Amino acid sequence: MLYGRVVGTIWATRKDEKLEGLSFRIVEKLGFDGAASGSHVVAIDTVSAGVGEIVLVAQGSSARQTAETKDRPVDAVIMAIVDNHELNDAGAPR
Fold first, then answer.
1. What is the domain count for the chain?
2. How far apart are alpha carbons 48 and 18 in whole angstroms?
3. Across the 94 residues of the chain, what is the mean pLDDT of every consecutive 10-residue run?
4. Left (φ > 0), alpha (ψ -120 to 50) or beta: where does 28 sit?
5. 89 is a domain residue
6. Spatial distance between the Cα atoms of 67 and 23, rounded to a whole number of angstroms
7. CB-based contacts of 62, cutoff 8 Å, min separation 6
8. CA distances (Å), origin 85, targets 34, 39, 66, 82
9. How far apart are CA 46 and CA 13, in angstroms?
10. Tell me, what CATH number does 15's domain have?
11. Three-state DSSP state, 1
12. What is the pTM of this model?
């Protein structure tokens, strides 16, 4: 699963008929500290995420497990909008 921020949208008027009705978003991968990696992925948006929102992305065969993406030629899907996260520093002295 990938943690990232929606940074854009892709429009494609001509596409495989199995992709009709789906929205394409550009997601930049993030570290859990919020630092941008500079690496991007195009993902199908099944949760109506907007630009600037932090999301979780499933990739590979897992991307075809949502109701909207089942049996479609999809390699990445936004399947959650993150409200917040907590990261415990496992390396900190106790």
1. 1
2. 19
3. 97 94 96 92 97 97 91 96 85 55
4. beta
5. no
6. 14
7. none
8. 11, 21, 23, 7
9. 19
10. 2.40.50.220
11. coil
12. 0.88
